[in-house]
Amino acid sequence: MTPTRVSHCRTTMGITIRKAIKADEPALSRICLLTGDAGASADTSHDYGELIGLVYAVPYVKLPTTWGFVMVDDATDEVVGYILGSKDTRAYEKYAAEHWWPALVEKYPPALATRPADAHYMRLFANVPTAPEACIAFAGAHLHINILMAYQGQGWGRKLILTAIEYLKGENILGGGVWLGMDPRNVKARAFYERLGFKQIEGADENYMGIKFGVE
Question: Which one of 52, 118, 123, 139 is most buried, by most CB atoms within 10 A?
Answer without folding.
Answer: 52
